[in-house]
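Q: What would this chain look like folded?
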Amino acid sequence: QVQLVESGGGLVQAGGSLRLSCAASGRTFSTYLMYAMGWFRQAPGKEREFVAITWSGGTTAYADSVKGRFTISRDSAKKTVYLEMNSLKPEDTAVYYCAAALAPIRLQNGVPDYWGQGTQVTVSS
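A: My prediction, written as structure tokens:
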């Protein structure tokens, strides 16, 4: 099993930055490396949407809405994935969820094997 715990959310002014962290546990280091890791978000009254994913040796993909502003990265030694968010906009306000899957396609389709509990990000105008 894999347990995911997000942190780093909070209140930030438009144009500011935040870095979210997702710490994984419950697997060995080698097993952890088998997982694709990603981030999703859900705003009030809206569907949960894909934000970013990383897999293999560092391949990444982003939603068009965050491309050029957000960066996903991974520290395998710490079993932690990060989401650096820059130039934040009020429409980025949402609960952000970390997710893991053995197959990247499962993350891309919004059906990961494991979800974190979520962390709130609020961007004021």
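Residues 104-108 form the longest helix (5 residues).
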